[in-house]
Design goal:
This protein is mostly helical. It is built from four helices and no strands. The protein has a single domain, classed as Ferritin, core subunit, four-helix bundle (Ferritin, Up-down Bundle), CATH 1.20.1260. Helix content is about 75%, strand content about 0%. The protein is elongated, with a radius of gyration of 17 Å. The N and C termini lie far apart (about 70 Å).
Length: about 140
């Protein structure tokens, strides 16, 4: 007799299923791409102050990337599949795109945080949401200048 396969996701460790691992991998990729994006956006910045604000955002993004990447490796036992993404061509369009990406990240990270009962995972993504909301406001201020 062949055992029936279930469509339900089986936990890999208590409280962690494949969907959560996949979402964390997407978060790693998102942060990696954001690092590259903000590097380019900083190069396009019209003032030293705008450049520094963007580099400060990038530092938070690097911290998120390292945190999520470490978490992903611990849960999956492998490194994420990372691909590059298009980089900004103009400063103002790049700022607009970054604002939209930050808004999308807030929703995505809130969903990840609420999808688990593991405090360490919840904390990482809740903190990221706070940072990303701050980034969005900084970017809106840069766009208004």
């Amino acid at each position: 007799m062949i055992p029936q396969q279930s469509n339900q996701q089986q936990p890999l460790i208590s409280g962690v299923n494949q969907r959560l691992i996949n979402d964390i991998e997407k978060a790693v990729v998102r942060e990696y791409q954001a690092i590259q994006f903000y590097n380019r956006l900083a190069e396009l910045a019209p003032t030293k102050e705008a450049r520094q604000a963007i580099l400060d955002i990038r530092q938070d993004v690097i911290r998120h990337y390292n945190s999520f990447n470490q978490l992903f490796a611990q849960l999956s036992g492998r490194m994420p599949n990372i691909a590059g993404a298009p980089l900004p061509v103009s400063y103002r369009d790049g700022i607009r795109e970054a604002i939209q990406d930050e808004m999308d990240a807030i929703t995505f990270y809130k969903n990840i945080s609420s999808s688990t009962q593991i405090p360490g995972i919840q904390h990482r993504f809740t903190r990221a949401v706070e940072d990303v909301a701050r980034h969005e406001q900084i970017l809106r201020n840069l766009l208004a200048q």
